[in-house]
Amino acid sequence: MTECFGSGRPRWLNPRVITLDRLTKVFPAPGGGDPVVALDGIDLHLDPGRIHGIVGRSGAGKSTLIRCLTGLEKPSSGRVEVDGTDVAALDGAALRAARRHIGMVFQHANLLDSRTAAQNIAHPLEIAGVPRAERERRVAELVELVGLTGREHNHPAQLSGGQIQRVGIARGLAAEPKVLLCDEPTSALDGGTTRQILGLLRDLRARLGITVVIITHEMAVVREVCDTVTLLQDGRITQTGDLLDVAADPHGPLSAELIPLPPAPTGIDALVVNCDYGDSERFRTSEDLIRLAEEYQAEATLVAGTIETIGGRQVGRVQLALRNRSGAAISREGLTAFLAELDAAGVVAREVTA
């Protein structure tokens, strides 16, 4: 009763909605070669009511992980618990019942062309045998919830890409699941529509208290909407945690991808230094770095950078051109002292050109 998690609440008040313990999936190789390890001892614990991003390159194991979460794939070993039920241990009717607690949203909604938006939303309820009056009530709620009022009688050919995805989200919510799994939900949408769909997912989390898991390769999606993030590489978790902590950790593999540094201008007559900050209590903005340079009789110019505000805190990767007051490059002694002070304060700084 005393074990506590991020919110400081005891476990019985804040149960984890998804628990993966030592999850492993091995596929036999075609032709009798070495087996393929798609997931290799995954341990992941997600608290309810949060939006969690799972990222990784092609072949990292993201799709296999989703199939194990939904019971479409049986793990080779380990436990897959969703809302208190070990999905991996179920078959048949029991597995189908457990899946009702898991909604799915895909990159392409794959709506039935012969059905209206409302009829597509109702489809999983029909399959589950929900009475017609109850189906109609639930569909009306969902149409309003996802912002499709006035479009519910349109067929897919009459809907925009964003509206089609809203139908897909409503369909995923039809059975009132505890978890909504979204597999690349915005990769087929333009930038403006992507922001609308992410805003909708954020609103649904706030209104319904649902847990949302987004599988994506788009770091902009993670920055925009996720509370926590996990990086998969070669079937293993290489980094996981709260988004701000992960983005602000300059030593972690995800920081450079979440906060990418654009190429610096060429032909600069100065010493150029890369600075990754965000995990430092002393240096919270690029202006703080520029003020420190002045203490070493140097003028610092910001020549390239990416600065994001995550969780109300500024996190950035910048390149500074350092010159002395006469316009020449800062002295080697001054640069060494400048870098040492930054390092002592938790800023990862390194010279990139001379």
From TrEMBL:
Signal peptide residues on this chain, from the entry's feature table: none
Gene Ontology biological process terms from the UniProt entry: amino acid transport
ABC transporter domain sequence ranges: 18-259
Any one GO molecular function term: ATP binding
Superkingdom classification of source: Bacteria
UniProt xrefs under Pfam families: ABC_tran
Entry keyword RNA-binding: no
Entry keyword set: Amino-acid transport, ATP-binding, Cell membrane, Membrane, Nucleotide-binding, Translocase, Transport
Database matches in Gene3D superfamilies: P-loop containing nucleotide triphosphate hydrolases
InterPro entries linked: AAA+_ATPase (IPR003593), ABC_transporter-like_ATP-bd (IPR003439), ABC_transporter-like_CS (IPR017871), MetN_ABC (IPR041701), MetN_ABC_transporter-like (IPR050086), P-loop_NTPase (IPR027417)
PANTHER family per record: AMINO ACID IMPORT ATP-BINDING PROTEIN, METHIONINE IMPORT ATP-BINDING PROTEIN METN
Protein name: ATP-binding cassette domain-containing protein
